[in-house]
Amino acid sequence: MKITNNFNLPQVLVDAALNDPYDPGESDISVTRLISPPRLVALAKQHADDLSEDVSDWLYRLMGQAMHHILERAGDPLGERIIEKRLFFTVNGWVLSGQLDLWEDNVLYDYKFTSTWETINGLKPDKIAQLNVLAWLCRKNNIQVDKVFIVALYRDWSRSQAKRERDYPQSQVGVIEAPVWTDAECEAYIEERIEMHKAAMFNLPECTEEDQWARPAKYALMKEGQKKAIRLLDSESELIRYAEKRKLAFDGKLKAQHYVEFRPGEKVRCESYCAASAFCSQFNGA
């Protein structure tokens, strides 16, 4: 992996990225890769020497690593915590590894820099899966886990918005409980994912829309001088009917100062968060 510096950021940030201490140990696949799209993981392995990321895209990762170091200061004065421990277990011939952030009183905590939307809209399925696979690894290593939580460190938190909206996170740190899977559910998920990753080494599968974080095209009802859409719908005809119900359109024509804006669909992960997208025929339409 090459680290570029397209925005001429301080060299110390580049050096910090190059000296990333992440080490999955002697394993075939990590929990992070297990839950990732098999196509992405396989392409990243095939083109490992050609991949590049700009250091500007590493900032949240570096902040996360810094937070982990800070929280390690808490230590374990009573000998009742497990902090930053990597765990291993063999499944279907592959060694799976994962690192827990904090275990205490049979509760597993995972620290994440994330958006406030993670609380407002609920945890994403991949984060729930990640937590449960880690919990399963704990149990396989004789560490009992009864509950799992994400400790969300909100990078976009607004104090003024918290004062205005009750449903908005009221603190810059949120503790979000995730549903706990049974061991049978965990094992079925892990075995299925491992087989998918094994198969991808020989025959690249297509990424699903969920894998791509796909957002469908939308039509926005807008008003001049106003940045926020009045309404977003899947088709222009639906939008016009909505506008007519709101007395913003008559006989299929919008009132003055109102207009329809088309917002094309996008594949968020492919376009902004996949290091292997340059080598992906599915994304590039080859």
Content of β-strand: 25-35%
- State Rg: 23 Å
Q: In percent, how helical is the residue content?
A: 25-40%
CATH topology of the largest domain: Lambda Exonuclease, Chain A
Question: Which segments are poorly predicted (pLDDT under 50) over 5 or more consecutive residues?
Answer: none
Count, helices: 12
Structural class by helix and strand composition: alpha+beta
CATH class of the largest domain: Alpha Beta
- Into how many domains do the coordinates divide? 2
Mean pLDDT across all residues, rounded? 94
Q: Write down how many β-strands occur, each being a DSSP E stretch of 2 or more residues.
A: 15
User: Mind summarizing the main beta sheet?
Assistant: 6 strands, mixed
Broad shape: globular
CA-to-CA gap between the ends? 24 Å
Written overview of the protein:
The structure is a single chain. With 286 residues, the chain is α+β, with helices and mostly antiparallel strands. The chain has two domains: 2-205, Lambda Exonuclease, Chain A; 217-264. The protein is built from twelve helices and 15 strands. It has helices at 11-18, 31-34, 38-46, 59-72, 117-120, 125-140, 159-164, 183-200, 209-212, 236-245, 268-273, 281-284, and strands at 2-4, 29-30, 52-54, 81-91, 94-104, 107-114, 147-154, 173-178, 214-215, 218-223, 231-233, 249-250, 253-254, 258-263, 266-267. The strands form five sheets. Strands 2, 4, 5, 6, 7 and 8 form a six-stranded mixed β-sheet that branches. A three-stranded antiparallel β-sheet has the order 11-10-14, covered by helices on one side. Strand 4 and strand 5 (94-104) form a beta hairpin. Helix 3 crosses helix 8 (183-200) and helix 6 crosses helix 8 (183-200). The mean pLDDT is 94.
